[in-house]
Queue: 2 jobs
Job 1
Amino acid sequence: MTVHAAGKFEVTLVPIGADDQAPGSTLGQLSIGKRFEGDLVAVSQGRMMTAMTETEGSAGYVAIERVTGTLHGRAGSFVLQHGGIMTRGVPQLTILVVPDSGTGQLVGLAGKMAIIITDGQHSYDFQYTLPDPVP
């Protein structure tokens, strides 16, 4: 059965090294840190790679982050894989749980997460499945 989790999060992005600039695009790397609240009470650490183009609003990114905490009271960790592009301001984003990355009470976790940004505030909508509840 698919379960829904929602809440807010804060994100910190820190550049790693200097950007790689060339005609047509700029490549960058960042460290990601998040603090989740709501149905997912957790912190995460990860890495992001970006590509910015000369066309305003067009870019791409990939990221991997390990999330550690509790999801609806079940403790453990899991890894999220991000893939996103923006075409002249129109975003397309996919965030999936890496298969078999769940630990502790989150073993077997599968799902996808959406990120919502409203007035500079970040929130998440996480649709997921888990094996039978831990006794």
Job 2
Amino acid sequence: MKLCVFQGTFNPIHNAHLDMAEFILQNYGFEKILFIPAAAPPHKDYDVKMAEHRLNMVKLAARNNPRFEVSDIEFRLSGKSYSYLTALELYKIYNIDGKINFIIGTDAFEKIESWYHSDDFKKIVDFIVFVRENNFKPERFQHLKEKGYNFQFTRMPFEDISSTELREKIRLGQPVDNLVPKIVEDYIRKNDLYKTE
């Protein structure tokens, strides 16, 4: 199978995440998008208590699309949630045709060389890089191509939703109905999340 992975903190998952995943399905011929919420993100401060909530919200957001699948693999692996180690496990679980395709934004991809075992990671995945800025200059990434990173850029018209700004809206009690799925918004309200940031 051709597998495309969408890994992230998803704190919380929002409509732009879902739109990106749907865009990839429609334009790249994958059978499914595998959402992988990071249990213990290595590059971010995180609240251990929130990890299970983040996983639950991704499951809720994805449940009505049969081509979206959610994996708790990083919750079953001990230690920090390193993408390289996760990818190695995925190759054991799935019968993957070619390489895993890995969705990433330009902001994160710029820092890819700082990732855990990046030189090994680049050998086992192909990157689909979402352009997230205007006046994009692809030559900024030429050095990564020369170092053996296999990637392609893609862009789509969508509102670039900031999870940080979204959490602040929730904290202030502002409406977020056009930013997250209703079922996720209900979960956030029911569990009183993001009230103390």
